[in-house]
Amino acid sequence: MVKRATNDEPWRVGVLFSQTGVTAVIEETQLRGTILAIEEVNAAGGVNGRELVPVMYDPASNVRSFARYADRLLTEDGVSTIFGCYTSSSRKAVLPVVERRNGLLWYPTLYEGFEYSPNIIYTGAAPNQNSVELVDFLLESYGSRFYLIGSDYIYPRESNRIMRELLRQRRGEVVGEHYLDLRARPSEFRLLMRDVRNTGPDVIFSTVVGQATAYLYQAYADAGFDSRVMPIASLTTSEAEVKLMGADVACGHITAAPYFESVRTADNLSFVSRYKKRFGDDEPTNLCVEAAYFQVHVFAKALAEVNSMDPDVLRPIVLGSEFDAPQGRIMIDTESSHTNLWTRLGRANAAGQFEIVKESLWAVKPDPYLVSH
């Protein structure tokens, strides 16, 4: 049973993002987005006069640690809401824990879809909100021959399965497919570029994540390929990875995402300014930061209404709720527990930002099982 806070007790929430390990390059930014939102809620008086207090652990990019810490949060720490997880492997590890303990996980990362849990609020993009628009753009702009490169775990393999199906429907083809360990070294990517050269694709579709992302793009640059002719297109390469590899290496490559730092809205300009003031002018925002940020505000808004952390009380209020996020107005979908998000395509430029080349006119309803595609 969830303990109801007394009038002066703080609201305790769990936070599970890796600060060390191979995926820390992006998870640390999700942690910053979460902390910024919590600080903003508290600066505005908290929720019904009580501050939000994060109970944080570092899973160190280890799947089993995510499950272990989630269980500790829900049993020993008296927490019922957890903000966390980047990889699908970590989410899959935490899912049975929150279902068994009746916790509520807020997941701020794009993912492969084909999942539903009443104990998860999905605030990252589903495949219909990024993959579908991206593949159509690539086929029209570059050609039909795709080489798929991914990190070796659930999300890349499932995302590439979806990409293969989308290409089959559109008469495109996969001419190569290769997976590398999350801890793959630069030499492995350089070797892979030889096969890319021999195969001659029109596009490289990357689902490589973490530190290895920089190795992939650097190996591409060292091989002398031209992004104007054969770009790397990705759903996972954000401003954080561009900073890691350098703008010169990333320039010309393409990412599909609901949010880029370059979105020109008043809400985003204010968000970027606050983020940089808090964490440094050289720290860019990205799609995962933004989702981690707005989901805390959605949670706080619902909590203020029900004044209870009980997931069975809180969740019905979360579903259908709206928020003016930096990307634009979003809504938590009542049917799927996913989020109506904007669809955007960006091309990395020499300044380390993404120039938006295409975007939806409004937030796109999630279709995690690709029923309409």
The total tally of domains equals: 2
Task: Give the strand order of the largest sheet, numbering strands 1, 2, ... along the chain.
Answer: 7-6-8-9-10-14-15
Total of DSSP H or I helical runs spanning 4+ residues: 12
CATH T-level fold name of the largest domain = Rossmann fold
Mean pLDDT: 96
Q: Give, in order, the helices and strands.
A: EHEHEHEEHEHEHEHEHHEHHHEEEEE
Using DSSP, what is the number of strands? 15
| The CATH top-level class label of the largest domain | Alpha Beta
Percent of residues in beta strands?
15-25%
C-alpha end-to-end distance? 41 Å
Computed structural class: alpha/beta
Describe this protein's structure.
The chain folds into two domains: 11-125 and 264-340, Rossmann fold (3-Layer(aba) Sandwich); 128-262 and 344-359, Response regulator (Rossmann fold), CATH 3.40.50.2300. The mean pLDDT is 96. The chain is α/β, with parallel strands linked by helices. The longest helix is centred in the first third of the chain and has 20 residues, at 24-43. The protein has helices spanning 24-43, 63-75, 88-101, 131-141, 154-169, 186-199, 212-222, 239-245, 247-250, 266-279, 287-306, 311-318; strands at residues 11-16, 52-57, 81-84, 104-107, 120-122, 145-151, 173-180, 203-207, 232-234, 254-257, 322-325, 328-332, 339-340, 344-348, 354-359. A hairpin with a 6-residue loop joins strand 12 and strand 13 (339-340). Helices cover 41% and strands 19% of the residues.
